[in-house]
Amino acid sequence: MTHIRSTLMAALAAVGIFASAPASAQSSACMDGQKILLERQEIIKQVSTLTGGGKKKQIDPRAACTVFGKLVTNGDAGLKWMTTNKDWCQVPDQVLQNFEKDHKRAQTFKGQACGAAAKMAEMEKRAKQQAQQQQQQGGPRMGGGLTGTLSVPKGAL
């Protein structure tokens, strides 16, 4: 997690490089990169909140899958942007390399979180099915497989 933050800081430093260039020299493509990196910063804040900010906290795999999914989507866009605009927007090689490493790590985390979320969903589905089967079987049984119901004949005896 700390490596993601350090790389994020390097990426934001790169954003600072873009912002410090003369306004007339900035292209809209470089500004798009800033937007991607700022969005990534917000997603990293969500990851930090999800993990308890360094405290040992139980993480909900479904929430983690969602947040890491956003991070991977952002990383895909960021890598595409950096690769396309590296020279024009003066993205340092180190920033691109660190971004690629963090993107791969985010993909791994997403896979783990989404896998755990899928297992949870499957377990919940099975538990629900078992509860329904028990309900359909009529609850508590009397000896000999009887269901405990008795029909009374209607009419005169």
TrEMBL record:
Organism lineage: Bacteria, Pseudomonadati, Pseudomonadota, Alphaproteobacteria, Hyphomicrobiales
Protein name per its UniProtKB record: Uncharacterized protein
Signal sequence coordinates: 1-25
Region (Disordered): 123-157
Keyword annotations from UniProtKB, A to Z: Signal
Composition-biased stretches (Low complexity): 129-139
